[in-house]
Amino acid sequence: MLPGLDCGDMTKADKAVPELVRAAEALEEELVRLEVLSRAIQKLRLDSEKSIAKAAKELNEALAVPERLAAGLQGLAAAMQQMQQRQQAALEPLAASASEIQQRMARLGEHMQAFAALGKAAAEVTALLQAETDDQATQFERARAELSQIGDGARTLFEASRADGFPDVARDAEALKQRVVALRRKLEPN
What is the pLDDT of residues 165-177, one digit of tens each? Predict the structure, then answer.
């Protein structure tokens, strides 16, 4: 069984013996028949009319096997061609999926970069607030302005990631926006 393939996913048609296997088995049976006849003919003693007649009959039977082998090879070739068509039919949608996956990864990467930039800006505001300065009013005003920009960026990221179908990023952006708004309120002058 293939990894990730659940037995419940297989239909009755999938459980049937594939044409390729049937063709190969039929070919193998004919080849075994030829080998058995060849050995049997070689072991026959050609010392009586009966044994010579039997040898001639088996020889005629053996000589008919190559025709059946040729037909079997054609059947195997047809089954292989059918398998190749099935493979192609399965691969074609993968190309479209690969393109979509790449686009989604790129878009997610853009959202994650924007989120990282917001996180970096928030860390800078935290560092600004922790820095000791003589002009605390100017420091708080600058922090409020930067927090406002971070809040706007988080709102924009929330909307874009939600529109693009990335709920985890949207949720994280919304949480960041709420933390920024709460911190900004704490910095408001009384």
Answer: 999 999 999 999 9
> What's the pLDDT tens digit per position in 104-148?
999 999 999 999 999 999 999 988 888 888 888 888 889 999 999
- Under 8 Å between Cβ of 180 and 150: yes
Question: Would you say residue 24 lies in a domain?
Answer: yes
Do 158 and 180 touch, CB atoms closer than 8 A? no
Closest residue by Cα to residue 145 from 121, 171, 175, 176? 121
| Residue 96: pLDDT over 80 | yes
User: Is residue 5, in this structure, part of any structural domain at all?
Assistant: no
Residue 161: CB atoms within 10 A of its CB come to 25
Q: Does residue 7 belong to any structural domain of this protein?
A: no
In angstroms, rounded to a whole number, what is the distance separating the alpha carbons of residues 84 and 74?
15
- pTM > 0.70: yes or no: no
Q: Which residues of 77-105 are buried (b: 16+ CB within 10 A; e: fewer)?
A: eebeeeeeeeeeeeeeeeeeeeeeeeeee
Report how many domains make up the chain.
Answer: 1
Owning domain of residue 63: 13-186
Judge whether 2 lies within some domain: no
Q: How far apart are CA 78 and CA 71, in angstroms?
A: 10
